[in-house]
Write a structure and sequence with these properties.
It is built from 2 helices and 18 strands. With 287 residues, the protein is mostly beta strands. The strands form 5 sheets. The chain has a 6-stranded antiparallel sheet. A 5-stranded antiparallel sheet has the order 1-18-11-16-15.
């Protein structure tokens, strides 16, 4: 049996959206994998793509990474999902630029209705009904365009660990270079312990005791400069409660980003914001 090979990759806001369909049921590798069982590991996935994060250092053949250091990420070479023939593409990539629809109002009342093509984003087939400008006309970022959410699922065995995040602006042009900062983009983090997400049943055999969302992180400015602990998983035995399918042994991490109340007075430009996640081995049960 060939062990996984190192895989240098971080989860990114641009990679995952919170939609999923159930894959075929299968036994979790967390139940019998030697390295996970002996040294501890975490697994994160979006129902199609799996990454494993180990405490064991395969490059040197030794245990283990130091507490407070990043766990070692591997790709899904070790096992693969069986294609059921019914699973659809659950990943919505935001790698390409997307536009958002603006709302036109006057004295707080809408004076122009958006006609969208159905995807919620601004494109060539969308339109606005005719309107006239006055001194009280406001051009605002529309409600749906102010928010973006994504989720992924996570499980673990025999390790305490934390999810850390780092936010940065890698490209800003025009007026946005001065009018919008990371601190203007709000962040709401939640943990959903069990449920059914579009037919994907999860969490029936997961233990979410001692999972803590760190306080004081309310916007992306709180994640700038260096990776900050965002969620602490303090249960030494891990999220896996007992043998079973991997989806039953997982919880879902949910992230909601909200743009500021932008209007045309803030100028025009482009903004490229990156949020990267890493998993760190932790010693203490408390954050």
């Amino acid at each position: 049996m060939t062990r996984r090979t190192p895989y240098m990759r971080r989860l990114s806001v641009a990679l995952f959206a919170a939609t999923a369909l159930s894959p075929n049921a299968f036994a979790s590798f967390l139940d019998d994998d030697f390295w996970c069982r002996t040294y501890g590991c975490a697994v994160v996935y979006d129902t199609q793509n799996y990454d494993i994060y180990d405490n064991y250092q395969f490059a040197s053949g030794s245990c283990c990474i130091a507490y407070g250091q990043p766990m070692i990420g591997y790709t899904n070479v070790f096992f693969k999902l069986k294609d059921t023939g019914t699973q659809s593409d659950a990943i919505s990539s935001l790698a390409d630029d997307q536009g958002f629809m603006f709302g036109i109002s006057e004295d707080g009342a809408s004076i122009s209705n958006a006609v969208l093509s159905g995807d919620g984003y601004l494109d060539a087939s969308d339109s606005l009904s005719a309107f006239s400008l006055s001194s009280t006309t406001d051009i605002l970022l529309d409600g749906p365009g102010k928010q973006y959410s994504h989720s992924f699922w996570i499980s673990s065995r025999n390790t305490r660990f934390s999810l850390r995040a780092l936010a940065s602006i890698n490209g800003a042009s025009g007026d946005f270079a001065n009018t919008i900062t990371l601190g203007d983009i709000k962040l709401t983090t939640n943990v959903t312990t069990n449920g059914n997400d579009g037919g994907f049943q999860f969490g029936n055999r997961a233990n979410a005791n001692n999972v803590t969302i760190l306080t004081g992180i309310d916007d992306l400015g709180d994640l700038s400069g260096a990776s900050q602990r965002l969620i602490h998983f303090g249960r030494f035995r891990g999220l896996r409660r007992r043998n079973g399918n991997l989806n039953d042994q997982t919880v879902r991490l949910d992230f909601l980003y909200q743009m500021p109340d932008y209007d045309m007075s803030m100028g025009v430009g482009t903004l490229d914001v990156d949020v990267s996640f890493d998993f760190y081995r932790e010693q203490s049960a408390n954050p």
